[in-house]
């Protein structure tokens, strides 16, 4: 079955859930790469729960983009754990909420503090990795994007609130999404409660205070999502039954791709499905979706540990750890429970090409969850790199009617200062 969905300055959200889609055009491209690990996954996609979306972008005479999506085994009913990819919609919803507050002194750079008001909650008043020593929505997003830190996501979750997160995503058409928890160990009741939050001036005076919140709305649990043949509790207690993901976060691959597209190309989607962001918000998001850890001053990450392609799976060559000259990748990745996922928009300024690539793969040969025995290094990472290179080489050769004007994605990135501050290593991600 061939499906080539062309969206000419529109955004197609009419998703046929429950029907896997595979396009012959993409299948043929994937057969062309003879790498043995790559072909092992391509020829046996079911146990690897493989899903891929490849999006060609073409421009008209006014430089307006159109998007042609090609699919390989894309099925929203085949669960994968989205892991850190949910940090992207949480960043968008946080910026959107700030704009909706419409308080001149409260913006993404305003210091913000988190208090505690319920079991399991923790305070966060200061952040040594920030230039001014305080958290802010902007700084949380930087950390969530640059090396995919986990605590910033939990704080964004607490700011927006569980109920508002899900209502907002569903209202935008992402009906099969589900965001239910922080990235810390909490039970479902604790995750329904979110912290009091306050924005402050430099002298500590409160500008705006948001009270603690509780989400009363139930989640749809009619579709049971289980995986594996067992899972560990603690270090050595094996439960011999599938791991239940029914109450865990869910972000289908097509929804993830569409959210990234709406971030980078907001005018390509209907107004109802855009996030209510300012032009400065969009520029900020473009910068930190593509800026490298070693280019960033705050936080000052260890550039050796957090190398250029650390969160760029489609270009994560185990030997060089560098992007090709002229290439920038605007993306969000996630990895957990044996899943590797990446949603990327790739620009090659030297060769004047652009495209999107989104994929997830599952590498858990023993079928046991929570044992930290996953084939990331031997199968997952090599597969994602080979997939990225397959599409990149195809795009280099693909003929276009018009050369794209990519100036809006040229960004003046930071330059790392040479100072005596210690670098940050070993963050929780």
Please characterize this protein's 3D structure.
- The protein has 429 residues and is α+β, with helices and mostly antiparallel strands.
- 26% of the residues lie in helices and 19% in strands.
- The protein has one domain (5-409): 3-Layer(aba) Sandwich (Beta-lactamase), CATH 3.40.710.10.
- It is built from ten helices and 16 strands.
- The strands form five sheets. Strands 1-3-2-15-14-13 form a six-stranded antiparallel beta sheet, with helices on both faces. A three-stranded antiparallel beta sheet has the order 4-6-7.
- The model is unreliable at 1-17 (pLDDT under 50).
In short:
This protein is 26% helix and 19% strand. The chain is of the alpha+beta class and 429 residues long. 41% of the residues are buried.
């Amino acid at each position: 079955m061939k499906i080539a969905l062309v969206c000419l300055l529109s955004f197609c959200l009419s998703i046929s859930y429950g029907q896997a889609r595979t396009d012959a055009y993409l299948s043929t491209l994937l057969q062309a790469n003879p790498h043995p690990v790559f072909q092992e996954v391509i020829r046996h996609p079911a146990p690897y729960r493989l899903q891929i979306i490849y999006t060609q972008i073409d421009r008209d005479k006014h430089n307006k983009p159109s998007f042609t999506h090609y699919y390989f085994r894309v099925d929203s009913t085949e669960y994968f754990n989205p892991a850190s990819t949910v940090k992207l919609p949480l960043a968008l919803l946080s910026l959107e909420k700030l704009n909706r507050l419409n308080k001149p002194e409260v913006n993404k750079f305003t210091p913000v503090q988190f208090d505690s008001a319920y079991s399991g909650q923790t305070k966060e008043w200061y952040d040594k990795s920030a230039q001014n020593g305080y958290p802010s929505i902007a700084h949380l997003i930087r950390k969530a994007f640059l090396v995919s830190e986990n605590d910033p996501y939990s704080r964004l979750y607490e700011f927006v609130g569980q109920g508002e997160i899900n209502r907002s995503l569903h209202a935008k058409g992402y009906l099969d999404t589900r965001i239910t928890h922080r990235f810390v160990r909490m039970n479902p009741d604790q995750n329904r409660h979110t912290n009091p939050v306050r924005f402050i001036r430099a002298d500590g005076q409160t500008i705006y205070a948001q009270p603690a919140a509780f989400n009363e709305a139930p989640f749809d649990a009619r579709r049971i999502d289980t995986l594996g043949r067992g899972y560990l509790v603690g270090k050595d207690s094996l439960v011999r039954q599938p791991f239940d993901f029914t109450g865990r976060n869910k972000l289908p691959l097509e929804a993830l791709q569409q959210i990234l597209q709406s971030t980078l190309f907001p005018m390509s989607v209907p107004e109802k499905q855009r996030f209510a962001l300012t032009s400065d918000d969009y520029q900020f998001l473009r910068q930190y979706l593509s800026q490298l850890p070693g280019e960033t001053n705050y936080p000052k990450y260890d550039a050796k540990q957090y190398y250029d392609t650390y969160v760029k799976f489609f270009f994560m060559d185990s030997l060089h750890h560098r992007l090709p000259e002229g290439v920038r990748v605007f993306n969000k990745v996630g990895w957990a429970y044996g899943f590797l996922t990446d949603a990327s928009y790739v620009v090659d300024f030297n060769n004047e090409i652009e495209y999107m690539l989104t994929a997830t793969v599952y590498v858990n040969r023993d079928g046991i969850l929570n044992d930290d025995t996953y084939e990331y290094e031997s199968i997952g990472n090599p597969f994602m790199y080979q997939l990225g290179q397959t599409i990149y080489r195809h795009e280099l050769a693909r003929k276009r009617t018009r050369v794209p004007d990519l100036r809006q994605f040229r960004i003046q990135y930071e330059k790392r200062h040479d100072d005596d501050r210690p670098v940050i290593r070993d963050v929780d991600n």
